[in-house]
Amino acid sequence: MGLKEIPQEFAEAVHRLGTDNGKALAIVIDDPELRDEARLRAAIAARDLFGRVGVALYPTVERAVHSMSAYVRYQQERRAL
After folding, report:
1. Within a domain: 3
2. 25 closest CA partner among 15, 34, 33
């Protein structure tokens, strides 16, 4: 899709992918190079939009994996009670 404007409907559909299926969902949007102002603005807009619709956002794959693994452990512990 590239870093152009993301439609609100797309962001909401991504959010529904997780909520409708009971699955955790995370998106990684790394920091664009600061010298490319258009990419920077697009990344900020995408982060704002996905954040507003409730999609978990992370700056790196490592942070996403760490967070998702903690979430899975939490869910497993809750089920064990």
Report:
1. no
2. 15
